[in-house]
Amino acid sequence: MKIAVAVNGKGKIFGGHFGSAPKYLIFNNSGKFLNEIENSHDPKKTKVHHDNPKLIKELLNDISVFIGKHFGEKSKEKLINKLRITPFDTKFTEPEKAIEEYLNGNG
């Protein structure tokens, strides 16, 4: 299992929709940082709408969990039911704390 955390340009949890984040930090199932992926579907750079989890799944193809500040209800439904991805909303701004929150089941 790998976990993607939506972050802004400063490395803090992105405040908008997960699919609109400029970057994603990738962690393994024990919380170890693996790498960073730039969002090639960033709506500020393209005309792609953030409510298309299939595009984000293509970008983050081996990810089981998405962590971010905000997921629309329809997007959550698509992620869970169609793509088998767990969306996780966090209140934290630091990716490491959000990972810890998820791994400790405090969501």
Q: Can you give a write-up of this model?
A:
This protein has helices at 53-59, 73-81, 95-103, and strands spanning 2-7, 23-28, 33-38, 65-68, 86-89. It has one domain (2-103): Dinitrogenase iron-molybdenum cofactor biosynthesis domain (Nucleotidyltransferase, domain 5). The longest helix has 9 residues, at 73-81. The chain has a 5-stranded mixed sheet with strand order 3-2-1-4-5. With 107 residues, the protein is α/β, with parallel strands linked by helices. The protein has 3 helices and 5 strands; from the N terminus they run βββαβαβα. The protein is globular, with a radius of gyration of 12 Å.
- For CATH, the homologous superfamily is named as Dinitrogenase iron-molybdenum cofactor biosynthesis domain
Radius of gyration (Å) = 12 Å
Q: Please give the CATH architecture.
A: 2-Layer Sandwich
Structural class label? alpha/beta
Binned, the helix content reads: 10-25%
Largest sheet: 5 strands, mixed
Strand content: 15-25%
Strand order of the largest sheet: 3-2-1-4-5
Distance between the termini: 18 Å
H/I helix tally: 3
Molecular shape: globular
CATH class: Alpha Beta
Overall mean pLDDT score?
Answer: 86
Number of domains: 1
How many individual β-strands? 5
